[in-house]
Specification:
Chain lengths: 368, 368
């Protein structure tokens, strides 16, 4: 019987004469971290030490190295798995984690989104079209002001109103007060419009604090929250997903440090595996520098069939405007959530009308 | 009254014509994330929006940009602070977080190490010389085998025996069984040698699981543990430091992805601020690629006087050998912990003698 392995795919800068040794060094670093000559356990040598499976020369000093790593070293803990996937190797400047291939058993242990695209369609009332979303900003406003904005977004008929990821539990806008006020404002607006707009508050702090925030959110009737896996710690995301099965999770990419882990992998695939029902990422041509190719690949990975793992909704964001809605819908298709924040807020007193125009643009779009 | 700010120092690649706009964009991204023209709160504009404090041209298209960010946006939560420090900006390929300057109030809120160099000297019995340490490896061995190794290290008179960071709570080596076995082996050896060798187990998993591990460790008489802040989540490190005041924390740099946050800042300064009593980092000339300059700067930042914040012990590691002990001691001085892992384990049946030689080399070194 062979040992169960997942395959980490690294892109390595090296010269042809040294790549074999470099690949072997990565295999050792990501498993036993010691000279193999000092290991006298046959079990460790055969079942635990990483194995170089393939090296491909991509030209120009770039190689793709595939390394098989034992599932047993990670167990069922996502944080530990992240360590074994890229922990120490992230400290090397010549390596990028490009991809990972996961045996069905590991995928089932992590489980992916509990609700996914289908579950979010049901709760946001978005059937047969792309989702619409906006963000509460700026940082620094008191709960009453944010709630007023939330209500105006909702009166425009939007599907989701999320906290800006900077909104936490600050003195000027405590989580409990903000969530109660925004949830109430959205509930009132939703009962006026008949559209089930959802408020998506952002979690922060340690696991205990995030649980208190989730309890307060659920008490206010909320069933969607946002979490930043690179800040919260992956094991804690896992714990919250297990403890709150009725809640849908939006993953925020903050601290994703895209230079060393390929964005399509981190956000599109790993955040999905971790259980994000929606994955927010910086769209091309906005405030961030992802290329169209990266964005397309990321969205594909978030939605592509993958064993029993549900698809996540890709949420391109970051400086998006109403004018870009048609182009973005043609680019991403209807299994997408468009998030327009500052550009709607810039409409100021016409916020509700501008939101309604956004909602209409998505609902009436004719895909090319 | 002016608002309390911390200063984030970024190194930005740009051309001279665009750097002012780029700096302003970072200031907005790390605070309100929306067009300033859409903000009508004078309080937010004056006290919350990031302020570009200084731009210095370092030549060759590299600029140093200093941005003042409001302390109020972070509050007292380390995870939220990390978001405001580098969250979204980490997604830009042209920026590295190079340094941060912290007002005394924020430093006091986070607090830094509770024990620091002085506290570790008392518990490890290392007076007037550098500390010695080694690591239990490889991943995959059962508790009894690791405990046997731990006992042999301790009989060599070493100060600290830490888990390899890959050791977690795997089926082949459950945390509770491993810690009980290793603690007992080290206790027996220590009573034979008279030297108070400490076992430093590695924490993993979500906050609840780490607390259960800490409880098990303390029940076994352990007062030092290792934690990986980039995996655990900074808020959880903070929570554990507050809940276990008698425990000293070693910070492991795994997933430190050094390319986007300067290592001297992340490991030497931020892990210290977070409360690490000892900070482990890859030494120059070992398995990792940090330069001697980076290592020197990192060690300086871990130990330099800093308001009321205690110094952390720098722990250069990663492929170190006995032969390098004199050179490393001259480079780092006595307020240092030398960690030699695989090179001692490679001595196999002579592990205790080799450990004793390591201990002797540190104890008898004559600094240049």
């Amino acid at each position: 019987m062979t040992t169960a392995r997942f395959t980490a795919v690294y892109r390595v800068r090296a010269d042809p004469a040294s790549i074999a040794a470099r690949a072997q060094a990565i295999a050792v670093e990501q498993s036993v971290e010691m000279p193999l000559s000092a290991i006298d356990s046959p079990h460790v040598l055969s079942d635990i030490v990483g194995q170089v499976e393939h090296i491909a020369d991509h030209g120009g000093g770039l190689f793709e190295v595939r390394i098989g790593l034992a599932v047993a070293t990670a167990g069922d803990d996502a944080g530990q798995w992240l360590k074994m996937l890229f922990g120490n190797t992230s400290l090397h400047a010549d390596v990028v984690l490009h991809d990972v291939e996961i045996p069905p058993g590991l995928g089932a242990a992590f489980g992916g989104p509990r609700h996914g695209i289908g579950g979010l369609r049901r709760r946001g009332g978005a059937i047969g079209r792309a989702f619409t979303a906006s963000a509460l900003k700026p940082q620094g406003l008191p709960p009453a002001r944010l709630a007023e904005l939330a209500g105006r977004f909702a009166r425009g008929g939007i599907d989701f109103v999320k906290d800006d990821h900077g909104l936490a539990d600050q003195a000027y806008s405590p989580f409990a007060a903000r969530v109660a006020a925004c949830a109430e404002a959205i509930r009132q607006a939703a009962s006026a419009t008949g559209h089930p707009t959802r408020y998506v508050p952002s979690l922060s702090g340690d696991l205990d604090r995030m649980r208190r925030q989730l309890d307060a959110a659920r008490a206010a009737g909320i069933d969607c929250v946002m979490i930043a896996p690179m800040i919260a710690g992956w094991s804690n995301v896992q714990a919250l997903k297990a403890a709150y099965p009725d809640v849908a999770f939006f993953a925020h990419p903050t601290l994703g440090g895209a230079a060393r882990i390929a964005p399509a992998l981190l956000i599109g695939r790993l955040f999905r595996l971790l259980g994000a029902d929606a994955v927010i990422f910086p769209n091309h041509g906005g405030r961030f520098g992802y290329t169209p190719q990266t964005c397309r690949r990321l969205a594909q990975r978030a939605r592509a069939p993958w064993d029993a793992i549900r698809p996540s909704v890709p949420v391109p964001a970051g400086g998006m405007t109403l004018e870009r809605v048609p182009e973005m819908l043609d680019f991403y298709g209807p299994d997408t959530m468009l998030l327009v924040g500052g550009n709607l807020l810039a409409a100021r007193e016409r916020l509700t009308e501008q939101t309604a125009a956004f909602v209409r643009a998505v609902a009436t779009h004719l895909y090319r």
